[in-house]
Write a structure and sequence with these properties.
Elements (H helix, E strand, L loop, with lengths): L4 H28 L15 E7 L2 E10 L11 H22 L6 H20 L3 E9 L2 E2 L5 H27 L5
Antiparallel strand pairs: 1-2, 2-3, 3-4
Length: 178
């Protein structure tokens, strides 16, 4: 199943929106929020306060650089990680455009692709990924992330949710939906 031109335009709009928001937030963070070299143990943890103690959750905007993957993993292999991201985006694009048989997966796949492209763009423009969203749940400080990371996670969650939903339907009806 290949994409219709109308559906392709919708996916390009999703891609453009996610990338625009990601690039804008990273630009604003890079140019207007001081780089966080140390973390304060008190709210807003060295950044800009957004909200404090709403059901035990704090949110602040902090300027943090990440030269690795999620949570800074493999930060010593930035070049390898960049090449891996580019290959992953190319493979996902080919899958989305030529092999994907489930229409519902098109938007989540596009969100994953947009997030990955956003982090690739960072690597080219800044030499690292800019993270800024910092949640603290009670005493647990969640790793700082960005809009691109959120888009990737939401896309993955939607695909997993759909797979789970289809498994439940298959068990109830005895019919295969994959």
């Amino acid at each position: 199943m290949t994409l219709s031109l109308q559906r392709l335009y919708k996916l390009l709009i999703v891609l453009g929106l996610v990338l625009s928001i990601d690039v804008l937030t990273k630009y604003l963070t890079h140019n207007h929020i001081p780089l966080m070299h140390w973390a304060s143990f008190e709210y807003p943890y060295g950044g800009i306060p957004v909200f404090k103690d709403i059901l035990g959750v704090d949110l602040s905007i902090n300027h943090v650089v990440n030269r690795g993957g999620p949570w800074g993993v493999v930060s010593d292999y930035h070049g390898f990680l960049l090449v891996t991201r580019v290959i992953a985006v190319a493979c996902l694009c080919v899958h989305l455009l030529f092999f994907n048989q489930v229409e519902f997966r098109q938007i989540p796949l596009t969100m994953i692709i947009a997030g990955a492209i956003g982090n690739i763009v960072d690597s080219f423009f800044y030499g690292h990924v800019i993270d800024m969203i910092h949640f603290v749940f009670g005493s647990y400080s969640f790793p700082v992330f960005n809009v691109a990371d959120s888009s990737i996670c939401i896309g993955i969650a939607l695909i997993m949710g759909q797979a789970l939903y289809l498994k439940v339907l298959e068990k109830k009806s005895g019919q295969s939906f994959s």
